[in-house]
Design a protein that fits this description.
The protein is an alpha+beta fold. It has one domain (24-153): 3-Layer(aba) Sandwich (Trna Endonuclease, Chain: A, domain 1). It has helices at residues 24-41, 130-133; strands at 45-47, 58-61, 66-74, 77-78, 81-85, 100-105, 110-115, 124-127. Strand 6 and strand 7 form a beta hairpin.
Length: 182
Amino acid sequence: MRRNPDKPSRKPRPSRKIGHHPSRKRLGEAIEAAFLARVSAFNFDVARPWGECNPFDFLVGLGPRFWRVQVKCTQRLAEGRYRVKATGWRDSYTPDDIDFIAAHIVPENIWYIIPIESCAYKKGLRFYPLAQAKGRKSKGQYENYREAWCLLTAGKRAGKTTLPKKCRCPQLPIRCATCPKQ
């Protein structure tokens, strides 16, 4: 069968229009790149596992200890809150899988660094970052972990009760919600 030179041999790929929302996969890749840039700017050591078989996206450390970090994000505000899925393909994350969830609220450009002990076995995490902007006390249970990059400097496993009493990382240019240096 001869090919007609006036007819393309394949269907053209649909073009991606500028300004359209990226696919979930592409958004996830962009957020992982943003996380990599952020932790690198704080001078953390960062490693990325090969492939997608591990339940974590990055290994992050400062010194001899590395933490397994799973990066998540959301763009959708509903009923005054942002919700981030806290599960892998099938199950909720456990302390055997990861050490931290790094949740990025994209429209607010806010990161939450949450120890897995504070959210293990939950299917979803809810964040209320806009309450503080409106002058109200946030009802979010994860507000203590807003920009809590200092938890990644801890030498031991972080948990619900390991919020810093003194600044764990004075060289970081950003302070977490509970930092005593605020």
